[in-house]
Amino acid sequence: MRFVERVRLYADKLLFYNSTPTITTAAFQWNKPLLGVFRTNLNEELLDSLVADECGTFAVEVKPNEVQTVLVVDKQ
Fold first, then answer.
1. Each residue of 11-27: pLDDT tens digit?
2. Distance separating alpha carbons of residues 5 and 68, to the nearest angstrom
């Protein structure tokens, strides 16, 4: 199986899509210190928070044919 995702970066948001027929996990590493990482709906309303490790890596489980939006809040 191959997870082919399409990722677009909009300043502080990640928008990606799981085009496979299976549930998979997308992992990202942020290069700046994080204040928080949140899953949002397409209206950018917060759904839940995600856990990032000390290196800024976080993972999101993505269902088949699902679009995910993630809001990343940098430390300023």
1. 588 888 898 899 999 89
2. 10
DSSP E strand boundaries for 1-76: 5-10, 13-18, 24-29, 34-40, 46-50, 57-62, 67-74
pLDDT, tens digit (0-9, with 9 covering 90-100), for 29-73: 988 888 899 999 988 899 999 999 989 999 999 999 999 999 998
Half-sphere exposure for 44 (CA within 13 Å, toward CB): 7
Secondary structure of residue 39 in the 3-state scheme:
strand
Q: What is the longest distance spanned by two Cα atoms in the chain?
A: 39
